[in-house]
Write a structure and sequence with these properties.
Layout: H1 2-18, E1 26-46, E2 50-63, E3 74-84, E4 87-97, E5 103-111, E6 115-123, E7 131-141, E8 149-163
Antiparallel strand pairs: 1-2, 1-8, 2-3, 3-4, 4-5, 5-6, 6-7, 7-8
Length: about 160
Amino acid sequence: MFHRKNWIAVTIVILGLAMFVPLAEAQRQEHEIIMCYAQTYNVLHSSPEVAITGFEGKGIIQSTHSNRLFDNFTYHFVGASKMLDGKSSFYGLSKNMGPDGDFIVWEIYGDSESGMTSKPIFGAGKWKGVKGESKGKLITGGKPIVQGTLQGCQKWVGWTEVPK
């Protein structure tokens, strides 16, 4: 009987102490943004069968969500794309920086069939430990002002989660 009472007391103490252990909570936020950019590209190879290019660009983000998440962020991106058998695909990385200097590095990929997806792979400052996903689509593109450039805007909708 004495042994059983000790186990009950130990269990109560452990549960009591566990109440004071902070649990890592994450703050999930939805976002809807417009990203406008200007980019340059370099052709590695171009033929009727395959086209391979590298690209680099810069732009600014405008939030269209009521929480204004990512509003007035600037960004720099680099990547590569290919066109093979009439299907295009790309892979890139983007550093998106807020007005306070904190930033997120996003991995961006897509193809002509499934669209564009981005996921954060690194965050600095308040974005440390960020997780999320975003889906994007091109909403406008103008006639290139200079050969070897592209200008346009994309709409991205998704979520991010940052540990508190």
